[in-house]
Design a protein that fits this description.
With 445 residues, the protein is an all-alpha fold. The protein has one domain: Hydantoin permease. The chain has 19 helices and two strands. Bound molecules: 4-fluoro-L-phenylalanine. The site of 4-fluoro-L-phenylalanine has 15 residues, from helix 1, helix 2, helix 11 and helix 15.
């Protein structure tokens, strides 16, 4: 059987499609708002360059050399203790867990695309009521749109790397970039643009504490899709003789640029028409729609295309979240792609329903343990524990376990004199930083 591979551009689009997601357009602006802007952005940028870029190359290397699902790639590349190291590949499970809430959020976005056609809330209060009513009492609407997300994502996965994933990204990514650029250019013409620039780039270091620092590091991971095998699984289908460093550069560059562009645009709108930047997770669903309302009819148009762009970002990331486990069942158990995609899809679909219920009045208590309900627990366990842990394993695996000559043979020609610096960062800087992040997020330090 001929193995389907990404084209060169196809790979970059798909990997960037994985990286550019709800993390960039929904999460990055609101955490930047929460931690006071400039200083936080600089820490995030610094982390992306120093740690994110290093691990991106390492993760691509494992997939590219292994050429199989994550578990098999780890197993084949480990010089000894193969049975232990292959466990590293089960990080792919984190993707399925993330999908449990990611698909539900994409459902909310679908709902907002449709409702913004005719309705925008006239005040932040009204916007909040609209959002919380959907969240806490409208089970059926959430179920309906979660089902649409599930069907779309599963369908694309059944089509495979070339006619499914590559194709989806080929259309959705350029559209997403065009929409954001168009809105960004409009934002630059508004008075408040300079305020947004100042907010995002003039650092006020007094606002940075250890929590802000750790959040920036954790977010660099989430936003670059690192630590769970999405990039690794895609890299297994990279063309032979690809330049991993160049590819990693493009993915990091696109992901970071889109986060900054989206942030500047949203903050401009919020300064110009709304209530300023510090609004928490509801920023996109609460503050933004009421800011759009102030723009009049143009606001409806902007709201619809903005939520379309957000949905596209979410969908292209979703397929990469499920693909590692799909590939695993195909490679290790000889499942057909159809069977693997539908089974994995059903997994996140069914648990996604539990996640919806865990926000619904009447069920919430049943599905809450400690200070978090099921939805929040899944978010917390995946982002706080599983991804940093996965990143740590990958850094150690490429930095210490795989023979250095093997790594050098592929990456030295591509990295040139920077090879030793990269290797050092992978071996020492990255593991220490990831370890601190994990401890902090688990509340130990
Ligand atoms: N990078 C995606 C985002 O920013 O929304 C989320 C994500 C996708 C995380 C794939 C991890 C992953 F493997």
């Amino acid at each position: 059987m001929k193995i389907a591979r990404f084209s060169r551009l196809g790979f970059i689009l798909a990997a960037a499609g994985s990286a550019v997601g709800l993390g960039n357009i929904w999460k990055f602006p609101y955490i930047t708002g929460e931690y006071g802007g400039g200083a936080f952005v600089l820490v995030y940028l610094f982390t992306v360059l120093l740690i994110g870029f290093s691990i991106m190359i390492a993760e691509m290397f494992i997939g590219y050399m292994g050429r199989k699902d994550g578990v098999t790639s780890f197993e084949e590349l480990a010089p000894k203790n193969k049975n232990l190291w292959k466990l590293g590949g089960f990080q792919g499970l984190a993707g399925l867990f993330i999908m449990i809430f990611y698909s539900v959020v994409i459902g909310w976005i679908f709902n907002y695309i449709v409702s913004s056609l005719i309705y925008l809330p006239s005040s932040v209060k009204e916007a909040e009521l609209t959002f919380t009513t959907m969240l806490h009492s409208d089970f059926l609407t959430q179920l309906f749109y979660h089902s649409v997300a599930f069907l779309w994502i599963t369908y694309v996965l059944t089509k495979g790397i070339k006619s499914g994933i590559e194709r989806l990204n080929f259309y959705l990514m350029p559209t997403l970039i065009l929409i954001l650029l168009g809105m960004f250019i409009y934002a630059t013409t508004l008075d408040s643009f300079s305020k947004a620039v100042e907010f995002m780039f003039s650092p006020d270091w007094s606002k940075i504490n250890s929590e802000a620092f750790v959040t920036a590091v954790g977010h660099a991971f989430f936003t670059l899709s690192l630590g769970m095998g999405a990039i690794m699984t895609y890299s297994a289908s990279m063309e032979k003789n690809s330049n991993l460093v160049k590819n990693a550069f493009w993915v990091v560059f696109l992901d970071t640029t889109i986060a900054i562009v989206a942030g500047l645009m949203l903050f401009t709108f919020l300064y110009q028409y709304g209530s300023g930047p510090a609004k928490g997770p509801g920023l996109v669903f609460i503050s933004l729609p009421s800011a759009f309302y102030e723009m009049g009819i143009l606001g409806n148009f902007f709201a619809v295309i903005f939520f379309i762009a957000l949905a596209f970002a979410g969908l292209t990331s979703s397929v990469s979240l499920v693909e590692p486990m799909v590939q695993y069942f195909i490679d290790r158990f000889n499942w057909s792609r159809l069977r693997a995609s539908v089974s994995m899809g059903l997994f996140f679909y069914l648990f996604g329903i539990v996640a919806i219920l865990s926000n619904i009045d009447g069920y919430e208590e049943l599905l809450t343990w400690g200070d978090k309900n099921f939805f929040d627990w899944v978010d917390y366990i995946t982002a706080a524990i599983m991804l940093p842990f996965g990143g740590l394993i990958m850094a150690i695996f490429v930095g210490f376990v795989i023979e250095k000559q093997r790594v050098e043979a592929v990456l030295k020609p591509q990295l040139g004199f920077a090879f030793e610096a990269w290797y050092f960062s992978l071996r020492y800087i990255t593991p220490v930083a990831m370890f601190i992040v994990m401890l902090n997020l688990m509340g130990v330090v």
